[in-house]
Amino acid sequence: MEPTTATFFELVRDDIPLVEARMRAAEDEHHPHLNQAIEHLLASGGKRLRPTLTLLTGRMLGTDPEKSIGLAAAIEMLHTATLVHDDLIDGALFRRGLPTLNANLTPAATVLTGDYIFARAARLAAGIGSLPLMEHFARTLMTIVNGEITQLFHERSGDDRQDYFDRIYAKTASLFELATMGAALLRQANHEIVEAMRRFGYQVGMAFQIVDDVLDFAGDADRMGKPRGSDLRNGLLTLPTLLFLESDPDGPARGEALRAGRLTADEIETLVADIRASSAIERALGEARNAIAAGETQLEGMPDGPERAALRQLGRYVIDRSF
């Protein structure tokens, strides 16, 4: 049974609507489609884990609540913009059961809408009035785009596992990192605290994406709205696949054929079934658990209280969700 988010979410429950209100704040002089698009994207829901991380970290450290809310809105808006472009690149027509923007818009209109949402995110971040935060915000956006370009051009270093970790850092963990580190920066905490919260966010973000990749094989296909092994079918090698190929006697040959696009549909179906039946699923989850454990050690020197306990619980939720 999926664990409830209520306990760690309870401390910031009243602040999440304030975050969403910041994101929804209309720009009257701009085309109405742009505000409608933001409203559509916010209506698709989500658990708001990134804003929750920012708000809990801010409360734990004593950050100005208004600044924490502004940062949470900026980060979630940045995340929303990346989803718009991701869906266009992937040709996805649905997300969380609702049509994506590119399902109803031309590619040009979708790109421009995503660009606008990126700009809105930057404006929200700039409104907080912290140059160090803006530098990290811009660097995070550069990291995300660089990761997408690297994946798009199928660039490999020769170390498949490191390529994977680099990719999920750029795609996912960089935003989690910004969510926790940013709240510490706004508190003007010392370097040790800022760095510890950066590492905590990094580890939670890495674990989150690893679990997502495990769920792609082991989750409920109906609930996910896509067939199991979708990433593999699209030529994307995630940690469960890499771990399986490392231990499979035919792994090198199957991996090379997969990367070259030479596997038939039946062979891919067999590979998905083999991965699901192997120890690779549990080993990948072990990597995620190790990441959360490493993240929890970064909280040891933080102020004791309900917020620190909630951050620990959020990390454990990341591991246990949907299993």
Main sheet: which strands, in order across?
Answer: 1-2
Helix content: over 70%
Structural class: mainly alpha
| Gross morphology | globular
Tally of structural domains: 1
Give the termini separation. 6 Å
Largest sheet entry: 2 strands, antiparallel
Individual helix count: 16
**Rg, please?**
20 Å
Kindly report the CATH topology. Answer: Farnesyl Diphosphate Synthase
CATH homologous superfamily caption? Farnesyl Diphosphate Synthase
Number of strands: 2
The whole-number mean of residue pLDDT values reads: 90
Low-pLDDT residue spans: none
CATH class: Mainly Alpha
Tell me the fraction of residues in β-strands, as a range: under 5%
SSE topology string? HHHHHEEHHHHHHHHHHH
Structure description:
This protein has 323 residues and is mainly α. A hairpin with a 2-residue loop joins strand 1 (94-95) and strand 2. The mean pLDDT is 90. The chain starts with 5 loop residues before the first helix and ends with a helix. The protein has a single domain (6-320), classed as Farnesyl Diphosphate Synthase (Orthogonal Bundle), CATH 1.10.600. The protein has a two-stranded antiparallel sheet with strand order 1-2. It has helices spanning 6-9, 16-24, 32-43, 49-61, 65-90, 107-126, 131-152, 160-186, 191-218, 221-224, 230-233, 239-247, 251-259, 265-277, 280-297, 306-320, and strands at residues 94-95, 98-99. The chain contains 16 helices and two strands. Helix 7 packs antiparallel against helix 8 and helix 8 (160-186) crosses helix 9 (191-218).
